[in-house]
Specification:
- The chain has helices at about 10-15, 65-75, 95-105, 140-145, 150-165, and strands spanning about 50-55, 85-90, 105-110, 130, 135-140.
- Strand 1 (about 50-55), helix 2 and strand 2 form a beta-alpha-beta unit.
- Helix content is about 30%, strand content about 15%.
- It is built from five helices and five strands; from the N terminus they run αβαβαβββαα.
Length: about 160
């Protein structure tokens, strides 16, 4: 599918374009407050305090295919992009304590983080664990899971445990 043919679900569009695209003096809209330069950037609204960590060197957050697959995963768990915060660790080096302090996640899902980037003690993939009061699941990259039925099943079972579905 070509980029120009991409059709995003309405809830995704609402998140991406939550504010007006153009603010003119006569629109009556106030300019949104600017974040501090060192603020953590993430995709989503973090309404349910679920943080998804990825490392993608080629995209601001994640690729079109990975985002589509992630939205399917979220839908199966009865969540939307508004419920989570997607953080690409490639865009900003962040220590886990800083991330927890800023986003206050109750659940942390790590996709495809190399061991030197994980910032977490050894946690086996697809095995839910609790670290410092945060429920954690680690897994391979989304593209790897999307192409492997057994890994999809393992992820689904881990998420069922994590979210008590």
């Amino acid at each position: 599918m070509a980029f120009n043919e991409l059709k995003l679900p309405p809830d995704t569009l609402a998140i991406l374009y939550a504010d007006k695209l153009v603010i003119t003096p006569d629109s009556g809209a106030e300019r949104p407050a600017e974040k501090p330069a060192n603020a953590l950037t993430f995709l989503g609204e973090n309404k349910k305090h679920i943080t998804v960590l990825i490392e993608d060197k080629n995209n601001m957050y994640l690729s079109e295919a990975d985002l589509s697959f992630l939205v399917q995963i979220l839908s199966a768990c009865k969540f939307t992009l508004a419920d989570i915060a997607i953080v690409n660790l490639n865009t900003k080096s962040t220590h886990i304590d800083e991330l927890v302090g800023e986003l206050t996640p109750q659940h942390l899902i790590c996709f495809g983080l190399p061991s030197e980037v994980k910032m977490l003690p050894d946690v086996a993939d697809f095995v839910p664990a609790t670290l410092n009061g945060v429920n954690v699941v680690t897994a391979p990259k989304l593209a790897v899971i999307a192409s492997d039925k057994s890994q999809k099943l393992a992820l689904w079972n881990a998420l069922k445990q994590l979210f008590q579905l």
